[in-house]
From TrEMBL:
The lineage of its organism: Eukaryota, Metazoa, Chordata, Craniata, Vertebrata. This is Olfactory receptor. The gene is LOC101680549. GO terms for cellular component: plasma membrane. CDD domains: 7tmA_OR2F-like. It is found in: Cell membrane. Keywords: Cell membrane, G-protein coupled receptor, Membrane, Olfaction, Receptor, Sensory transduction, Transducer, Transmembrane, Transmembrane helix. GO terms for molecular function: G protein-coupled receptor activity; olfactory receptor activity. The chain crosses the membrane at residues 25-48, 60-78, 98-120, 197-219, 240-261, 273-292.
Length: 317
């Protein structure tokens, strides 16, 4: 192949979910509402944790990080997708595509590591409750959070640099809703087997390693719960982990299915739907899961709403 053909394209065209105008308008309205709910729901969770001193614990410190990640991840993809629903030409500049890949891939990796950290927190809370405050002290929590952010960001930086060094020739049509790594490397006009191996290796390190740590934590947690003699004690211990376990099952499931075996990856439509799930549904579901299934959060909401009600009554009189 001629060297002249092996050039970087200046912009890409995202094919998105549909080319039908009416469908795009419907999707625009739906995704806009979901994005607004995502931003509002997660910022309300963060605000609630900041305002209620009972929630100033390691678990809710990590939940604050999770909410920030969810909002950031959705923001890295959804606004551009909304703009494309209303645009005739769905182009994205080369630099913007690289930035989108970096942030979405990085934030996804950060979330997986953070979920493993949160699993360790739940392990200490259930299996070693008397020493919980000693083990999960502020310094350790901050270091664990920093480790999550740094590991995900470094992996994303490496993957982004490797991906966008590939010659794209004249290929510029990305059959996806965003600059997702598997969709981008398919545009390369050279052998991408080494890139697929790199993706698989990073997935094992940043996805399967945290997943195994989560699995080990919950094996120990379940074993401890089963040893509790009272039904009420077992129920209380289970509810301590229920919200986190629900998020773990949802978050890890489809990502493992998508990235661990690039050669046998799902269809393009499935990849798009999986991306929609992580960009739209997961950031909406996370605050709902922690609000509905968590007694402490529900109690904090009731306290806050009660205070607002009293304040409103005083202002009205």
């Amino acid at each position: 192949m001629d060297t002249d053909n092996k050039t970087w394209v200046r912009e890409f065209i995202l094919l998105g979910l549909s080319s039908d105008w009416d469908t795009q308008i419907s999707l625009f309205i739906f995704f806009l509402i979901m994005y607004m709910v995502t931003v509002l729901g997660n910022f309300l969770i963060i605000l609630l944790i900041r305002l209620d001193s009972r929630l100033h614990t390691p678990m809710y410190f990590f939940l604050t990080n999770l909410s920030l990640i969810d909002v950031s991840y959705a923001t890295s993809i959804v606004p551009q997708m909304l703009a494309h629903f209303l645009a005739a030409h769905k182009t994205i500049p080369f630099v913007s595509c690289a930035a989108q890949l970096f942030f979405s891939l990085g934030l996804g990796g950060i979330e997986f590591v953070l979920l493993a950290v949160m699993a360790y927190d739940r392990y200490v809370a259930v299996c070693n409750p008397l020493r919980y405050s000693v083990i999960m002290h502020g310094g350790l929590c901050i270091r664990l959070a920093i480790t999550s952010w740094v590991s995900g960001s470094v992996n994303s930086l490496i993957q982004t640099v490797i991906t966008f060094q590939l010659p794209m020739c004249t290929n510029k049509y990305i059959d996806h809703i965003s600059c997702e790594i598997l969709a981008v490397i398919r545009l390369a006009c050279v052998d991408i087997s080494s890139n697929e191996i790199a993706i698989m290796v990073s997935s094992i390190v940043l996805l399967m390693t945290p997943f195994c740590l989560v699995l080990l934590s919950y094996i120990q947690i379940i074993s401890t719960i089963l040893k509790i003699q009272s039904t009420e004690g077992r129920k209380k211990a289970f509810h301590t982990c229920a919200s986190h376990l629900t998020v773990v099952v949802l978050c890890y499931g489809m990502t493992i299915f998508t990235y661990i075996q690039p050669h046998s990856s799902p269809s393009v439509l499935q990849e798009k739907l999986i991306s929609v799930f992580y960009a739209i549904l997961m950031p909406v579901l996370n605050p709902m899961i922690y609000s509905v299934r968590n007694k402490e959060v529900k109690g904090a909401w009731q306290k806050l709403l009660g205070q607002l009600s009293v304040l409103t009554s005083k202002l009205a009189t």
